[in-house]
Specification:
Order of helices and strands: EHEHEHHEHEEHEHEEH
Strand content: 5-15%
Shape: globular
Distance between the termini: 7 Å
Largest sheet: 7 strands, parallel
Number of helices: 8
Strand order of the largest sheet: 6-5-4-3-2-1-8
Number of strands: 9
Helix content: 25-40%
Length: about 280
């Protein structure tokens, strides 16, 4: 059976609690952050057999006015990426809310990584998998914005020695291994870099044009065929690839309006016809 994955915000779970949101038969799993909010609804969906993935961004610091147990933990435990002179690196504001400081994965130790994995396990709960957003084995130049929140020049990727990024790669890879061991048998979803044999892998087709080798990867090695398909560009592509595959699909959009719900409605109709 083809499966549908939703990414819910607080308002979506509020609507589900009031029985005015998506019907339970129209999705099979969901991604949700906002630790500590609408937890009774999360448990209700889990009890109904829905796969749940708790959302954690592992690249950028939370905005100053964001508060929940995860954001508070990040502020107290994560060291932001800075040059030796203290100049910080910030994610471009056009990609996410505000110009938010980047994590410095190169400064983690194995003990601190273990504590991080344990915290994510604790916050996820015993019945949920984990969704790691912005998980990159190596930083990219597009992650480095030009300006700090104060409008000053920000640190760029070329300001740091290459040795720093090799340690980043080793530390973030160790973290993923630890977390998967703690979360098993539930999945750890990676949105970012491809990593060896992930239980679920999220693919952005508009970012990664598919050549023949990548097409085979999606068809044979991933349990998610075309998730988080950009509805403004590739709904038809995603639905055609997903049809009859027995795998997962989800949609995303950077625009406002009903396009997202229309894409999910099409997926539900297609899935019902196939079944």
């Amino acid at each position: 059976m083809d499966k549908i994955l939703r990414h819910f915000e607080v308002r979506d779970l509020e609507q589900i609690r009031r029985r005015t949101g998506p019907q339970l038969d129209t999705f099979d799993g969901f991604v949700y952050g906002h630790i500590g909010t609408e937890e009774d609804t999360v448990r209700e969906l889990q009890d109904a057999g829905k796969m749940s993935l708790r959302y954690f961004n592992v690249l950028t610091m939370p905005a100053p006015d964001w508060h929940d147990p995860w954001f508070d933990y990040v502020r107290s435990s994560v060291v932001p990426l800075r040059r030796a002179d203290g100049l910080g690196a910030y994610f471009p504001s056009q990609w996410e809310y505000g110009a938010r400081a980047l994590w410095d994965w190169s400064l983690w130790t194995r003990m601190r990584l273990k504590n991080l994995a344990r915290k994510i396990r604790e916050l996820s709960g015993p019945e949920a998998g984990v969704f790691l957003d912005q998980f990159w084995m190596m930083p990219r130049d597009w992650m480095f914005g030009d300006r700090t929140p104060e409008g000053l020049e920000a640190a760029k990727i070329e300001h740091f020695p290459g040795s720093k990024w090799y340690r980043w790669e080793r530390m973030i890879g160790d973290f993923l291994t630890m977390l998967r061991q703690m979360i098993a048998p539930h999945p750890v979803v990676v949105n970012g870099d491809r990593t060896p044999s992930p239980p679920i892998y999220l693919e952005h087709p508009e970012w990664y044009p598919l050549d023949h080798e990548e097409q085979l990867y999606l068809e044979h090695e991933s349990t998610v065929l075309a998730p988080f398909v950009e509805v403004d560009w590739s709904v038809d592509w995603g639905l055609a690839l997903w049809k009859g595959s027995g795998k997962w699909i989800a949609f995303t959009t950077r625009s406002e309006g009903a396009a997202l719900e229309e894409a999910y409605a099409r997926a539900h109709v297609q899935r019902s016809a196939v079944d």
